Amino acid sequence: MLSCILATVSLSLTSCSKDGTDGAIGPIGPQGEQGVAGEQGLLGPKGDQGEQGDQGPAGEDGNAEVYYSNWIPADFTGSSDTVKFMDIKFPDTMPSAFSIKNTHLILVYFSGFGDGNVYLLPVLNFRGAQFTAGFGSGSAAVEDILIRAQALSGVLNEFQIDPNRGAKFRYLIVPPNILLSGKKKNPDFSKMSYEEAMDFFGLDY
Hints:
single chain; 205 residues; alpha+beta; five-stranded antiparallel beta sheet; 5 helices; 9 strands
């Protein structure tokens, strides 16, 4: 009897151990809801500083087209005792006054004996003398700037035109790009003092 039962159990286990054929894969289920974002991690250590880049090219000088001279001692010539002239020639690196007279502003300054002031030409009366300037005539006999000194009465004297008494001149030439759209709107250099004009361009007095 016991042997029959064991035989029956053995047959049952043997028949149950056989695998059946796999069924078809079912469709993908819907995506679940997105989970809650986790906490932000700790800030990592600061990285090493990178190497300094190459220096860029130098910018253009804002005064690149502004021409100016140092003080030039007076050097008047002429046979007349009442009217004399002084020529100033530009350096070869500069354009001629004739070529820029209609585009650039040419300012000529004068300083003379006694008061230490600087005057923009024309100077109508300095110790009885008048100083005017012309430029760009194109004449072979005249340099770029021609300064004329004339006695208002009597004759010209050393206190008016002698370089040993302090008579000297200086020019400043301003290009049109600064006149039209310079460092400040429409600068009027004819109304500036000498010091204001020099400060505008950062030039020494």
